[in-house]
Amino acid sequence: MQDINIIKSPVMVGLDPGLVKMILFIAGGIVFLILVVFLIKKFWKSRSKDKGNQLTPAIPPYKLALGELDRLCQKDVIDPKPFYFDLGGLIKRYVGGSYAMNALEMTTQELVKQIRFTGMDRALIMEVSQFLNVSDPFRYGPMVPDLSQVKKDLASVRQLITGMEQDLESQRALVQQSLPQQASSKQSLALGPEETP
């Protein structure tokens, strides 16, 4: 029996598997906590940005247009082409902001077609159409207007914007007047014919 050698238990070489599992588990927990903190901060920042955007009051299109028109009046007109681009853009931005349409992306013909559906006074529609059609060759063509024409166009654009704003205000006033009448008619219908006050 001397030929039989006793088998010894295996000897551990390297790291203990239990220790490796514990290290990986702790590292995973730390990574998970970092990810959770990152996501919470990101959510918190996006929420605070949304609140900041809600608190800034929107400037009405009429005030923006008048301010931009005043800046154009103060600017020296050296080259009328960029000036007429600015002037046409001003009208399109005002119409787009006031009537909730993407007027900057429209051609003159598309814009005039869309304005007809807004309820704007027909005389104003014709004036807007006429101004844009007259200024299109200055913006897109080789025609160059006189400087006296530039001053006249500034005054006409101011009148156009003021006229459109007055037309909008009259439309808003009509809507405000019709709301109480609609509410009282709905109330009388809800009460019935015998219960009306």
Shape: elongated
Helix count, DSSP H or I runs of 4 or more residues: 6
How many DSSP E strands? 0
Number of domains: 2
Quote the average pLDDT: 83
Low-confidence spans: none
Subunit organisation of the chains: single chain
DSSP helix fraction = over 70%
Order of helices and strands: HHHHHH
Gyration radius, to the nearest Å? 36 Å
Distance separating the two termini: 120 Å
DSSP strand content: under 5%
Structural class: mainly alpha
Biggest β-sheet description: none
List keywords for this structure.
6 helices; single chain; 0% strand; mainly alpha; 197 residues; 74% helix
3D architecture notes:
The chain is 74% helix and 0% strand. With 197 residues, the chain is mainly α. It folds into two domains: 16-46; 61-186, no CATH class. Helix 2 (61-74) runs antiparallel to helix 3 (80-99). The mean pLDDT is 83.
Q: Which SSEs are present, and which pair or pack?
A:
Layout: H1 17-55, H2 61-74, H3 80-99, H4 108-115, H5 122-140, H6 147-191
Helix pairs in contact: 2-3, 2-6, 3-5, 3-6, 4-5, 5-6
Describe the structure concisely for a colleague.
The chain is an all-alpha fold. It contains 6 helices and no strands. It has helices at residues 17-55, 61-74, 80-99, 108-115, 122-140, 147-191.
